[in-house]
Amino acid sequence: MSTVREHWGSRIGFILAAVGSAIGLGVLWKFPYTVGQNGGGLFLLMYIVCTIAIGIPVFIAELMIGRRTQRAAVGAFSSLCQGQTAWKVAGWFGVISSFLIMSFYSVIAGWGMSYVLMSLTGFYQNLSEAQIGGVFDTLSHSGSITVFWHFLFTVITMGIVLSGVRKGIEFWSKIMTRALFIMLVVLFLYSITLPGFGKAAEFIFYPDFERFHLSSALEALGLAFFTLSLGQGIMISYGSYMRDSSDIPQMAGIVGVSVILVALLAAMTIFPVVFTFGLSPDAGTGMVFQTLPYLFAKMPGALVLSTLFFTLFVFTALTSSIPFIEVVATNMMELLGWTRTKAVLTAACATFIFGIPCALSSSGELFPEWQAIYGKTFIETIEGLVFVWLVPVGGLLTSIFVGWVVERQISFDEFSEGESNKWLWKLWHFGMRWVIPFVILLIILQKSGLIDVDRLS
Q: At what angle do helices 391-400 and 214-227 cross, to 10 degrees?
């Protein structure tokens, strides 16, 4: 099917769409408690180093693959593999990852939408910490309510993607990403006034060598991949909408630095609240839905603070859920010759249906014996499959592909377009060939339990 490929309307449009995709719940939900569990300052430093040294180079590689071929993930790898059709598998890793992430991502985002409504009604008034934490247990165990919010969030995402690249993804990303920054800055300015701000700053920026291990470094690299939306086919699709004149290394650098700054801002917004009330910074995934609502309830202007925070939570989820549907849909359009409408509707319906077991995983209404057999709930199983295997393996295949399969002249041309510092290409290409595949392989082996780097060190 021969069609004229749609492109980003502006440079800022791509940057805001890419930043919005990269920020997501990884920054607001996973980043703070991962920093907390790994001891703060030294882990944060390692995360920044990994983002710059490993994450941004892979980010560049994915944009290059997309722009060079003007295709989505599967077609892009197929076009560049010089007849080695087996490399299509690397593209499918991204498509499957995006599909599976969307299936449970919309469930978590749906809980955030529920908390916006709950915050507006002041659900936390006159409730103890245990009772407020119990509200989330009730919500997550309510299958019908969770499915309702899962459905609503999927419909909103689908509506945006249906409108196309410029009128849908770019237009709404400009609005939502800017609104996200404004809300985060407002909450950050409020957190500065809290008594726990100084202690939070010390925790985040002061290195704690006793709590940092070699495995923490690998965790930092995994988090860098997660917060940059790598290994999911997203940046290949976004790269395919870029114009030939775009400076890919510069754009990737801007997005990477923006994600780091937003992650720091999110941590400096959440941890002052935690330290103000003397709670543990490594509270885990329950921090957002169980700990923070209780802390908001004890502050002046609780209704405004709680509503603003969970609106921010939903916005971050939405800016990163858009590309999940887009990745699946664009590959359908290219491989099956479908229209955007048919592909987006199919992708959204499929992710919604597959997400129903995720929405019902806590209630036990579907697959009640799942946890007893597999040791985790259904949603935890899918999340582990994606982030332990699919995303890292997808990143590994991408780095090997760009470093060893793609012609050197092609990668040089794409890297150098609009880039005055062409000498950086040699350093980047060396990293893609030798350093990055080795490090990603270590992550996979560590996460899968095949090795324990702390024992090896």
A: 80
Measure the CA–CA gap between 258 and 251, rounded to whole angstroms. Answer: 11
Task: Tell which residue, 237, 325, 178, has the closest CA to residue 8.
Answer: 237
Give me 272's structure tokens: 């002052």
Of 402, 381, 285, 348, residue with least CA distance to 98: 348
Structure tokens given for 29:
């939900």
Residue partners of 174: CB distance under 8 A and separation at least 6: 12, 13, 16, 17
> How confident is the model over 398-436, as pLDDT tens digits?
999 999 999 999 999 999 886 666 788 999 999 999 999
CA 381 from chain center: how many Å? Answer: 18
Q: How many Å apart are CA 348 and CA 307, to the nearest integer?
A: 27
Report how far apart, in Å, the C-alpha atoms of 4 and of each of 1, 68, 126, 240, 345 are: 10, 15, 59, 12, 22
pLDDT of residue 1: 42
CA distance 196 to 103: 37
Taking residue 303's Cβ as centre, other Cβ atoms within 10 Å add up to 15
Q: Which of 381, 383, 377, 384 has its CA nearest to residue 143?
A: 377
Q: What is the CATH number of domain 11-451?
A: 1.20.1740
- Listed by start position, the domains of the chain span 11-451
User: CB burial class (10 A; 0-12, 13-18, 19+) of residue 86?
Assistant: exposed
**Nearest residue to 15 (alpha-carbon basis) of 199, 257, 191:** 257
Residues 47-75: pLDDT tens digits?
999 999 999 999 999 999 999 999 999 99
Lowest mean pLDDT among 61-65, 129-133, 194-198, 327-331: 129-133
